[in-house]
Structures are given as C-alpha cells and as structure tokens.
Write a structure and sequence with these properties.
mainly alpha, 7 helices, about 75% helix, globular
C-alpha cells in the first residue's frame, strides 16, 4: 500500500521544482559564510567560494530527477530577487562610502547587507516556495535585531547565526523538499 502511495505522489509535480537547487545554493553559501565567520582572516575567499559553489551546485541540480516544470513566475521571481539584491546592496555600499571615514561603521554595513540578503530571500520565495520566504524573514529579523535591538551583540555571532539558518534551511530544502505552498 505505501509503495502505491509513493508512486502516486511521485507523479504529481512539485509546486516549487527549483527547491532542491535553492537548498544546494543555501548549503554552499551558508558553509562559506560560516567558515568566513570562524576564520575571519579568510572571510572574503570563503564568502566568494561559497557563492560560486552555490551557483554551480544550483545549476547542476538540474541533473537531479525533475520535480516538474518551472513556471514563468518562478523564473521571474528568481531573476527579480537577484536584481533586487544587487540594487539594494549597491545602495547600501554607496551610502556607506559617502559617509566621512570617521563615521563609517563596518558592523552597520555588514548587518545592512545581511538584511538586504534576507529581503531578497523573501522575493525568492516565488521560485523556491514558502521555506525560502520564511528564511528571508528570519535572516532579516536577525539583522534587524543586530541593527536596532542588541547593538552590543558581536557581528560575528549574528553572522554565524545567519549562516546556520542558511545551512538548516538549505538541508531541509535539498533533502526533504516539502511541497508546502503559500495557500
């Protein structure tokens, strides 16, 4: 009986067929960032390496058995989320660079970038589903707590928390790929 149920549900397309690729991306980025927070002298190479590995792994996820066809809205949500992220990061960094050097606060810059990344996960939910949107809400909240609630919390702790969230949601999305929807 359970075999029939598995076969029947396997033929139903997943509402978010890109979910596993998103999970792979999050695992790579999360690991790169976590290693960067642990070995801060190598933060940039770990962050870039995690991002590049994430994009490659996400693309290679197309080799996994298909979960269904991707819709125009899902592709638009994915592309739009990256455009939004790049634009907002540009604004955050530009604003930071316009400040007098004595007033620049690297902690604020990092937390604002983490907030922007969280925002882009909200819109990426169109492509990867509600788990990505929930991750966006949690990572944005983490950054906001650091910006406005606990200004004494070390950015390293907040950054590591952000990375652990990415790792957890990435594993969940890749391994379980639950078919949850917004409805």
């Amino acid at each position: 009986m359970s075999t029939l149920l598995v076969q029947a549900t396997a033929s139903v397309p997943h509402p978010y067929p890109l979910i596993r690729g998103g999970g792979l991306f999050l695992l790579c980025v999360g690991l790169g960032f976590l290693l960067g927070w642990i070995v801060q002298s190598r933060w940039v190479p770990f962050a870039i390496g995690g991002g590049v590995a994430g994009f490659v792994a996400s693309g290679l996820s197309a080799l996994l058995p298909s979960l269904g066809s991707t819709s125009f809205v899902q592709i638009a949500g994915l592309v739009g989320s990256f455009v939004l992220e790049m634009g907002l990061i540009y604004l955050v960094v530009s604003r930071y660079q316009k400040q007098p050097e004595a007033e620049r606060d690297d902690r604020q810059l990092i937390l604002r970038i983490l907030f922007v990344v969280g925002l882009h996960f909200l819109t990426m939910g169109l492509a990867h589903g509600p788990l990505m949107t929930l991750l966006g809400a949690l990572t944005s909240l983490n950054a906001l707590i650091g910006l406005y609630v606990t200004r004494r919390a070390p950015v390293r702790v907040l950054g590591a928390g952000d990375a652990v969230l990415k790792l957890g949601f990435g594993a969940w999305m890749l391994l379980a790929y639950p078919a949850v929807t917004f409805a």
